[in-house]
Amino acid sequence: MSDKELEGKWDQAKGKVKEEAGKATNDKSLESEGKADQVEGKVKEGLGEAKRKIKNTLSGDK
């Protein structure tokens, strides 16, 4: 797993905590920020995974 993938997973977890905290406190701004962090994390994770797969393909690894 690449650094970008780990960073993406971290952002997703952080975003989920923010979203749930926003729901619990009825803070729509925090809830939205958490959802945005989760999306950003998914994108980072996907880019990291794609980069890793391309690198593995070019180097002949599986």
From TrEMBL:
<dbReference type="InterPro" id="IPR050423">
    <property type="entry name" value="UPF0337_stress_rsp"/>
</dbReference>
<feature type="region of interest" description="Disordered">
    <location>
        <begin position="1"/>
        <end position="44"/>
    </location>
</feature>
<dbReference type="InterPro" id="IPR036629">
    <property type="entry name" value="YjbJ_sf"/>
</dbReference>
<dbReference type="InterPro" id="IPR008462">
    <property type="entry name" value="CsbD"/>
</dbReference>
<comment type="similarity">
    <text>Belongs to the UPF0337 (CsbD) family.</text>
</comment>
<dbReference type="Pfam" id="PF05532">
    <property type="entry name" value="CsbD"/>
</dbReference>
<protein>
    <submittedName>
        <fullName>CsbD family protein</fullName>
    </submittedName>
</protein>
<feature type="domain" description="CsbD-like">
    <location>
        <begin position="5"/>
        <end position="55"/>
    </location>
</feature>
